[in-house]
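go over this:
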Amino acid sequence: MDETSPLVSPERAQGPGYGLPGGAVRSPPPAAPPPPAPPASPPGARDRERQPLLERDRGGGSAAAAAGTGGVGPGGAQPRGGSAPGPGTGPGPAERPEREPRNDFPEDPAFAEVVRGAEAASERGIFPERIYQGSSGSYFVKDPAGKIIGVFKPKNEEPYGQLNPKWTKWLQKLCCPCCFGRDCLVLNQGYLSEAGASLVDQKLELNIVPRTKVVYLASETFNYSAIDRVKSRGKRLALEKVPKVGQRFHRIGLPPKVGSFQLFVEGYKDADYWLRRFETEPLPENTNRQLLLQFERLVVGVGWGHHCTGMEDSEWVVVKEPIIKLAAIDNGLAFPLKHPDSWRAYPFYWAWLPQAKVAFSQEIKDLILPKISDPNFVKDLEEDLYELFKKDPGFDRGQFHKQIAVMRGQILNLTQALKDGKSPLHLVQMPPVIVETARSHQRSASESYTQSFQSRKPFFSWW
């Protein structure tokens, strides 16, 4: 992607760090005189912009917050390290920068309360419980009463993570490296895909994905390296034997892990259970209508809007009583940087359901079309995803542009399918499209895009 083609149009109000990895600010040429202060945003520029779901960076001081190990905590948490003090000076108690990431969500107090309950439970010895299904380390998180309140998936315990506790994936990676993983996905970014899927769901007002955000948690039951555990025990021992030395340690326990935290949904069962039951017990007309409307939201938001490459029947759940509700609970394989084109096609398993053959309803058209047909809405969605994805220490701007190009193509196909009255099955049969920002050596008032179709198909195709 061309470096001179920023993600956001120049006319839109931006934070000074937007468009560069980690929020860095371009420096002026060294030979130039002292640069003037950057021009202020035009009055009312932010008023024209839709309210984002994520707080945008406003100042250059946040440039270092997303880079290296001093990443920003969710909800605008302070970085672990600050700028170096001048010679002979040091930060006082009130000025000391906070080194630990914080779980602070001022825009979502209810979610923040749930996370605080999880932290309080760990302090009382009620630790998260590992989920033994799946190919990565994931955990049921409990509150102080022992009730399951969420699912936490640490970044370094993902299928590509160094501390993945599932030995089967390690064996597959060791013995069959050529067949390991999906080359269409950004490695070790599943936790961001989980949070990104929730963000898209909120923007589209679909209410299919349980609320998910990036959270920092520590627990004895997580899979830590031997070094981390030895260091933690040594610090605890030092605190007990030599309190004056132990009190100097910044942290006594195990280091917190960054990962996705998804609110737990109660009363749901795997979609496969209900789909088999619906085959033997036909639903009443009204109930079947509810199922169809929920299925459309699943297709639009999760299965297509951001191209989740792993939508099997076990990755969305259904609750039947008192009304039918669907929930997409596993979205770590979303946001690919290209359409699958190597070995497998990773088909959408829901495309074989009878509901996939029914044309999109007028309800879903009225809900989705006004949003995805609005360029400003799509641009705001891209900005929110940028603010989320750039928190990762390994964030790559070029890969992010590729992910956005695939998402734009999915939105283009979805828009056309809704306008033409097509069904979800017809939607997945449309040619894959990539919509990239056009290369330009001059900045213009509006962005232009280039559209291309993917001609290469996977070796094992399903159509």
Q: What stands out?
A: The mean pLDDT is 76.
